[in-house]
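INPUT
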Amino acid sequence: VTGERNIRDGRGDEELMVAFREGEAEAFELLYRRWERGVYNYVLRFLGDPGRAAEVTQETFLAVVRNRRRYRPLARFATYLFRIAHHRATAVIRRRKVRAERPLVGPVVERPPDRESVLAVRDALARLPERYREVVVLREFHGLSYDELAEVAGVPVGTVRSRLHRARAAMLEILETREEAPEP
Amino acid sequence: MRPCGGRAEALSAYLDGELAPEERAELESHLPACSGCREALEELRELGEGLRAWPDVEPPGWLAAGVLQRARRAGRRPLRLLAAAASLVLVALAVVWAVREWPGEPSGGEPGAAVEPATPPRPVAGALVLPEGARVEELRVLVRREGSR
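OUTPUT
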């Protein structure tokens, strides 16, 4: 999980956010350095568009700045941050009709033996409906627990469990179909 | 390979370490005896590994500059508001002082009393010459007479 207690400060994310709320501007900069990459990559894998990922990442952190006085450390800062990013990203999907089938982008892993399988897995993820894709991304890449996923996506924990199962089953099926398909 | 007896969802949650203790115990006692479930679990593990092999991407360089600049501006906003409030108080104090100290306004004079100018105004050619100390009514009459000439 990105974030936590690195980047030149021993304080946890929640302590930093409280310090920022109390007027310590440098605390936000530390939080930003810890989480910029995580938020950007979550949105990039969710939306599949680098331009929109940057836009949503920016909006997410600016919302943190704007709402800092209302912040209460009731949950992990990561959950709070990803929830904001989730709302912004789903608004983009609604507004601009980002299509679920749109291929995800990003640099290709330059490890020849795995390259094909990595691309295949990415392609399978890109084919999932957004609500499935999101839980997979937050679980596999950011290590959120089911409780945290429920908080971010605004659904019950049982729904998270079933979405993850369905998402994985659908991805395995896509990969299986791909393996069975004849070479073009 | 398909897992048996509708255990697919439980396997997915087991992989995530999110099964309740009793459900976990039940699954763990079942797995050694069921090759279908073991293979299905292995497929799920490989899928997760395949996903995590996709590395993070560096965010564009301009992103941090824009966000941090706006955050710093937002952080300074209370100070700017304070400075603006202090300026307003100073202006208000200056206005009060100026009104109290205004030289043209005698503090203890009769209301409506005529004020003597420091230097008498110079007469303008063709202008109506008003008698000193004339009342408003007398001035109106005088103006009407001058106008009717």
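end of record. Chain A touches chain B through 48 residues (CB under 8 Å).
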